[in-house]
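Worked example

This section walks through a single chain of length 55. The input is the sequence exactly as stored; nothing has been trimmed or padded.
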Amino acid sequence: MTSQEEKNKQRDRQIAENEEVRQITGNIRVSAWAIVFAIILGTIAVWTGWGWLRH
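Given that input, the structure is written out below as tokens.
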């Protein structure tokens, strides 16, 4: 294997590792937003239900 091929493989491995980290970070960010959205919807539902029961 030539030196250039080895460099290309190393570069490709580094790119793949960076992309994996970026993908994980994106997934965590989406999950955090989903949790916040669910909490907000749950709070609205409880607040609305409480109002109906107290009415």
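What to look for: The radius of gyration is 24 Å.
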